[in-house]
Amino acid sequence: MIIEVNDNIIKKLTPTERDVVNYINSNLNKLSNMSIVDVAEESFTSPATVSRTIKKCGFEGFSELRYKISAKEEYNHDSKKVNEILGKSLIEVTKTIENISITNVLNIVKTIKESKRIYILARGLTELVAQEFNLKMQLLGYNTFLIVDPNIMMNICKTIEKEDLVIAFSLRAETKEIIESVKSAKKSGAKVVTCCCVRKSILEEYSDITIIGYKQSRTSIKEFEVTSRLPLFIISRAIIDYLII
């Protein structure tokens, strides 16, 4: 039994939601391989009902429930490993959202709207995050420039104006060219925003606003710097979605 049902929880559940709980507790050996849609179909309910039931029982969502089942079970080694992988993403998403300061998001949006030009800096795999962010900003009508070439970014930031804004995306916040560029921009009087996954970095020292995501310590491909950029995508989305609103 993965869901312990006490009197307080039973009072919150409808008869249909109790059926969902009974199904989950009776099918633990299958659940780690199932999606929320599968559970809804098997219990003759809907994904919304399954999600609501799980949350009433104290879980953040179906992903957390499935992850906890896989951590306990001994039925299927492969299923357990896949759920551990999915669990890493769940942790990254959850902790990044917890880290994001609402005040900082609001201040970034305000700064973006007040800026004449917006320069977006990124290097390596983080360029993929910056490319998407830049495209969406341009679709919203903002005057943005994506710069990934180290020499260009360092030269442009030396001639930047006070009405401009620099947004730096950097996972580890230690890329030399981005640090030098941000220093130059700050010296010119421009505003600087940093989106990274490291606290108390050099980049943060030179930034007006910093948003910090959560980075996993373990890397799947250890020979290369291919750590997940999911936290940066989440930060990027938070900014873009609020700009749209």
TrEMBL record:
<dbReference type="InterPro" id="IPR036388">
    <property type="entry name" value="WH-like_DNA-bd_sf"/>
</dbReference>
<protein>
    <submittedName>
        <fullName>MurR/RpiR family transcriptional regulator</fullName>
    </submittedName>
</protein>
<feature type="domain" description="SIS">
    <location>
        <begin position="108"/>
        <end position="245"/>
    </location>
</feature>
<dbReference type="InterPro" id="IPR046348">
    <property type="entry name" value="SIS_dom_sf"/>
</dbReference>
<dbReference type="Pfam" id="PF01380">
    <property type="entry name" value="SIS"/>
</dbReference>
<dbReference type="InterPro" id="IPR001347">
    <property type="entry name" value="SIS_dom"/>
</dbReference>
<dbReference type="Pfam" id="PF01418">
    <property type="entry name" value="HTH_6"/>
</dbReference>
<dbReference type="InterPro" id="IPR047640">
    <property type="entry name" value="RpiR-like"/>
</dbReference>
<feature type="domain" description="HTH rpiR-type">
    <location>
        <begin position="1"/>
        <end position="76"/>
    </location>
</feature>
<dbReference type="GO" id="GO:0003700">
    <property type="term" value="F:DNA-binding transcription factor activity"/>
</dbReference>
<dbReference type="InterPro" id="IPR000281">
    <property type="entry name" value="HTH_RpiR"/>
</dbReference>
<dbReference type="InterPro" id="IPR035472">
    <property type="entry name" value="RpiR-like_SIS"/>
</dbReference>
<dbReference type="GO" id="GO:0003677">
    <property type="term" value="F:DNA binding"/>
</dbReference>
<dbReference type="GO" id="GO:0097367">
    <property type="term" value="F:carbohydrate derivative binding"/>
</dbReference>
<dbReference type="GO" id="GO:1901135">
    <property type="term" value="P:carbohydrate derivative metabolic process"/>
</dbReference>
<keyword id="KW-0804">Transcription</keyword>
<dbReference type="InterPro" id="IPR009057">
    <property type="entry name" value="Homeodomain-like_sf"/>
</dbReference>
<keyword id="KW-0805">Transcription regulation</keyword>
<keyword id="KW-0238">DNA-binding</keyword>
